[in-house]
């Protein structure tokens, strides 16, 4: 049961127009998909509008989590008065009944936006004086997993359901992903291990060292049982290519060649996925892949994949340092101390070697 600082939402009309603010990166949006699933189940006739950073995040939704409309709001771009007014006009045209703010979104701007939207019911976490602009406030618990925090937000509506995070993968996404694998010489019966060595350019401190990925891939390649695929976005092509080259071409570099749903299809097809704290690892967990997650600067209790398999962390006195040091300490010894042998031990358990 969730605990709220205000009474639960009652007597809400149906059908409803509900906006859900999810203007974060891929991982946080995946953790927020339970809000959309829970609202869809509780209010099947509702019109649900997702406020998202960009098309990549919007592509995560579909099927049971489908949004009726998407409004784009990139926090890095919607800063001019004209941009803010354009956003408010779009929100006002929706004639919103409810405005829901997912966990960990700006403690000042989010409640102000909810109030300016004109929605009668405004639900979000209580963690600043501006939270008084919400009609229903949820007690914030930054020590628990983000999915649980989003379940608490659902609880403000009296919704008892606890949906798991999800990502929509269509049949055509799977077929396009498999076509790419075939063109890379990977047959339909090949056993795959996927590796995501990136973490976003702004969070490079969360990455495991490239040399350690190279050592891991060489060990995997020596067993001749699994093919290794490197995945990532366009900005990670160079990173993945360096690792592939240094691993003596044992791995296949798919970075930048797949959209988010096709990437999810490859992860779902893989027997195990290895990587640090990133949106791609949340993607892997949401589509049911087995994961080995490497943690240092961030807390696995808060940001690991919801479907936990293996987490490797060194539990140093200074770790985790986020959010105190959101850009890291410039000396991520917490990640360097994780050894390829640690990862191989987890993979042996998953792959049943």
Structure in words:
The chain contains 13 helices and 12 strands. It has 353 residues and is α/β, with parallel strands linked by helices. The strands form 2 sheets. It has a 6-stranded parallel beta sheet with strand order 3-2-1-4-5-6, sandwiched between helices. β7 (192-196), α7 and β8 form a beta-alpha-beta unit.
Structural class, from secondary structure content?
alpha/beta
Strand order of the largest sheet: 3-2-1-4-5-6
Extract low-pLDDT stretches. 1-5
How would a textbook summarize the main sheet?
6 strands, parallel
As a percent range, the share of strand residues is 15-25%
The general outline is globular
Mean pLDDT: 92
Short description:
The protein has helices spanning 26-42, 55-58, 81-93, 109-116, 146-155, 171-183, 210-223, 237-246, 260-269, 279-286, 300-303, 333-336, 340-351; strands at 17-22, 47-52, 69-72, 98-101, 121-126, 136-139, 192-196, 227-230, 251-253, 272-276, 291-295, 310-313. It is α/β, with parallel strands linked by helices and 353 residues long.
């Amino acid at each position: 049961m969730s605990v709220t600082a205000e009474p639960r939402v009652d007597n809400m009309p149906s059908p409803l127009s509900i906006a859900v603010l999810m203007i974060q990166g891929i991982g946080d949006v995946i953790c927020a998909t339970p809000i959309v699933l829970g609202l869809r189940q509780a209010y099947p006739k509702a019109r649900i509008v997702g406020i998202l950073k960009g098309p990549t995040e919007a592509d995560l939704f579909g099927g049971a989590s489908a949004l009726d409309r998407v409004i784009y709001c990139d926090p890095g771009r919607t800063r001019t008065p004209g941009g803010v007014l354009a956003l408010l006009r779009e929100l006002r045209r929706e004639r919103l009944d409810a405005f829901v703010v997912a966990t960990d979104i700006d403690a000042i701007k989010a409640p102000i936006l909810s109030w300016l939207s004109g929605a009668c019911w405004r639900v979000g976490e209580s963690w600043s004086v501006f939270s008084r602009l919400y009609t229903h406030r949820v007690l914030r618990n930054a020590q628990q997993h983000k999915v649980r925090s989003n379940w608490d937000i659902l609880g403000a509506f009296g919704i008892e359901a606890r949906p798991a995070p999800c990502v929509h993968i269509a049949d055509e996404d799977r077929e396009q992903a498999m076509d790419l694998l075939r063109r890379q010489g990977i047959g339909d019966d090949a056993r795959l291990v996927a590796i995501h060595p990136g973490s976003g350019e702004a969070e490079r401190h969360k990455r495991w060292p490239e040399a350690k990925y190279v050592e891991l891939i060489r060990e995997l390649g020596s067993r001749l049982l699994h093919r290794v695929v490197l995945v990532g976005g366009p900005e990670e092509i160079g990173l993945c290519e360096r690792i592939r080259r240094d691993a003596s071409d044992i791995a296949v570099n798919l970075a930048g060649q797949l959209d988010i749903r096709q990437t999810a299809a490859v992860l779902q097809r893989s027997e195990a996925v290895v990587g640090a704290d990133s949106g791609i690892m949340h993607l892997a967990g949401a589509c049911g892949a087995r994961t080995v997650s490497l943690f240092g600067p961030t807390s696995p209790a808060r940001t690991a994949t919801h479907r936990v398999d293996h987490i490797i962390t060194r539990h140093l006195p200074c770790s985790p340092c986020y959010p105190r040091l959101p850009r890291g300490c410039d000396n991520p010894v917490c990640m360097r101390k994780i050894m390829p042998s640690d990862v191989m031990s987890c993979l042996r358990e998953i792959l049943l070697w």
